[in-house]
Amino acid sequence: MDDDIDVFESFDTSIANSDTISRISETKPVDKMSSLDAARQEDARKLAASLLNSMMQGDCGDSIEAPPPKRIKEEEEDFLPEAVQGIFEKRVTVHTIHTDNTNCTHEVALPPDTMFKPWMPFNKRQSVCIENNQSVLVSAHTSAGKTVVALYAIAQSLQEKQRVIYTSPIKALSNQKFRELEEEFGDVGLMTGDVTLNSEASCLVMTTEILRSMLYRGSEVMREVGWVIFDEIHYMRDKERGVVWEESIILLPNTVNHVFLSATIPNARQFAQWVCWLHKQPVHVVYTDYRPTPLQHFIFPVGGEGLYEVVNMQGQFREDKFTEAMSGLEALGDKAEGGVQRGRKGGMKTDSNVVRIIRTIRDRTMLPCIIFSFSRKECEAYAISLKDMDFNDDDEKKLVREIFTSAVEVLSDDDKKLPQLGQLFPLLLRGVGVHHSGLIPIIKETVEILFGEGLLKTLFATETFAMGLNMPARTVLFTSARKFDGMDNRWITSGEYIQMSGRAGRRGKDDRGLVILMVDHKLSSDDAKQIIKGAPDPLNSQFRLTYNMVLNLLRVEGVNPEFMLERSFHQFQNFDAIPELQRKVDEKMCEIDNMRVEHERDATAFFEMERQIVDYRKEIKKTMCMARYLVPFLHVGRMIHIVAGTRDFGWGVLVNFQKKVDVDDNTQMVYILKVFMEFKSDNNAEVLDLTQIQPAAKNAPASYDVIALTLDCVDQISSVRLKIPSKVDSEHSKSLLYQVVEELQNQIRT
């Protein structure tokens, strides 16, 4: 150690003087360097000891700087070679890294001009789990470093001669991960529904559906797998495809370790408990809500003039700006019609609001930009509307042409003539892209490559583009705050907003990310906070038995539908909720026991009498509706009150009735009444039936017609009989009868 320190420190020119040098020169003129070392050896050792002491006492990130050089006499300067002077000027820096254990010291020596970048605690915890061969769930925002743990698991598997599977929810993400991992490790294969490449590789990238099929088939590959990485595991809450993730996790062998990569989810611990219970192995949860690039959130009221910052980089919701934005939207009224509208001839009429915002984004150098729209047609219509804007220079256009030409070479001659290619290529040349599930796979992959290389400045995409693709931009624009989910046109959830807005802000390139939300409907402050600043959506099971699952289970020996149901996350969540539900029941029972009601006995007696009255009314009605009692009063024109179940249709007029033999019991007779009555006017059925109509609301538009019903629908019989036409089949006769009934009902009410 002393010799190493002497190499650096024995050249401190402040130690020697000219007399010493002259004396050494006279005695040993041949070895000047050795003479100089001998003269200052003691001082060098002292300086080395001082340096070691400072190294031991340094904190994380601190470096030991070389002492400032001092001038020496000209005779001594002649003794220092240029190489030694270079070593002296550029020192190796040493960093001391803080450890929790006082008996452990961690130091790192770095070459000159090398910046020390310590691992974040978040990444450090992940790597420890992988080194211990234990499963881990990593939950964090976009660009927070989740990919590190996946790379670490792959590297460890390859080192241990095991195979590893990387699954993703969509083909686009699988394609991207294949390119990244192949560049990193080389021995990587790809298996999707469209493409299979190098299926014998040690690292296989595939969609989750492919993994499920392999597990049902009992593929030999699974015998060699040590780790399975589930990217974007929060996709398990998808109503349509979420069950695929549960099936795959349930069917995996207990010998396989798991890495789950997820966006922030509030119930990560519950998911880890399920996997732990399922496979009898430890599962770690590493969670962080740190976002490397802060976001600024703006609202653009459609038809308005400007952007309103509603959430700043500190995450504070600005009520004043939100109120100002909504007041501007309210003032515009019907003019606030955002997005793409239908023209009279069925074509797409593109609003200029999106074009205005993109032009502003370009002028303020906030590109690249991802524009999320919830419709394929809107994506294409918006892209075409930018026909007057060109974002690429000549060199970039040349690169786009080369990449696009190379990509379409794999297509057949017929496929090269597809209209999709001809329509998209001019857009790509100008730096405008489109990405949705309707594009052919090679075009989608080409768009992803071009955007990743910075050759597309604006990209119109559906929400699937936000599903894990490492394609960040500086700005994200939402063309609408509402989406149609197959059942309802609703506001987007906070989880969907977090997922898509997370594409804004490129780590290491941007100091902030910009998110712009176009709003064309009045939005309350609470709804806005819920969307923009709301908690992430919980990871809830969407498990269900499907025909496909049952057929697959019948092929697997020892596995049945009950096996899947018992081990599903849905069942686990239900069991997990039992203690909390029991606690609430106990609380309510305690409240009931401690409850004191004034005149409780009288109230109980009154309630019992009310219940008896209801029962007696049912008995009376049952008796009254018997044919032998009711039929004698069934005369044409008789006013009767109609109640079918819980639907009260009010008073109607008996037009006719007929007696038929009961189909179920030919010894009994059934009476069918034809009653002229009022009902809700939104029924368009050609043949009106009592089961298809609803009572008309008060002061609401109503229809009237003759409806067939049975005796049990008669609630009351009036003593009033009306003189009605012999046939109530024309609109004129129905109108006259309705006026008489309406007047009579008004008299009854008063």
TrEMBL record:
Keywords recorded for this protein, A-Z: ATP-binding, Helicase, Hydrolase, Nucleotide-binding, Nucleus
Superkingdom field: Eukaryota
Domain Helicase ATP-binding: 127-283
One Gene Ontology term from the biological process aspect of the record: RNA catabolic process
Localization per record: Nucleus
Pfam family, one: MTR4_beta-barrel
Keyword Phosphoprotein among UniProt keywords: no
Record bears the keyword Nucleus: yes
Any one Gene Ontology molecular-function term assigned to this protein's record: RNA binding
One Gene Ontology cellular component: nucleus
Alphabetical list of PROSITE patterns matching this protein: HELICASE_ATP_BIND_1, HELICASE_CTER
Chief location category: nucleus
SMART domains: DEXDc, HELICc
Residue ranges occupied by any Helicase C-terminal domain in the UniProt entry: 353-557
Name by which UniProt lists this protein: Uncharacterized protein
Organism the protein comes from: Parelaphostrongylus tenuis (Meningeal worm)
